[in-house]
Amino acid sequence: MEINENIIETLGKITYGLYVLTTKKGEEINGMIASWVSQVSFSPPLVMVGVRKNRYSHKMIDETGIFALNVLAKEDINLVSRFKGPDPKEKFKGLKWKTKATGAPILEETLAYMDCKLTDSVNTGDHTIFIGQIIEADILKEGVPVTSLDYGKVYLGQS
Ligand SMILES: Cc1cc2nc3c(=O)[nH]c(=O)nc-3n(C[C@H](O)[C@H](O)[C@H](O)COP(=O)(O)O)c2cc1C
Asked: Ligand 1: residues whose CB is within 6 Å?
């Protein structure tokens, strides 16, 4: 079935949180804005993130089997523009980060993090659903998570 304007506009009514999805392979780090994120199990604690197959992060998560989801606070919304871009060096410039259990970068100025080991990859359409078990998680500061409503746009998966 063809995707038409009604479908696209209706998909735009889904609301999401905004996260920086990070990963690390050896000395190489990367991060990207991800919004297709959800908890999918309580015990064990599992989360999923939908990543388009052409993302560099896709290749890295596939190869390393690790990722972290950094939860952005409303006040961190300025981080969206740098982590939606293509240059990994620019993305982390001037930002403090550390590693925890898996080695994926944890951004120190964000609201909270979930450090995850990949448990399943579901190949679906033009995205892959990466499912990860949360190995470690913590709240880093007080604040309110940012959503697509604050950002004013919704990621539709188009490019
Ligand atoms: C608000 C917003 C939400 C996004 N959500 C996703 C997402 O859930 N999945 C995805 O694959 N790309 C998403 N993107 C696009 C990626 O962040 C962007 O393509 C990034 O440059 C990919 O980086 P990489 O190729 O270095 O991994 C989103 C972008 C924005 C601005």
From this structure: 18, 30, 32-36, 50-52, 55-57, 80, 84-86, 151, 155
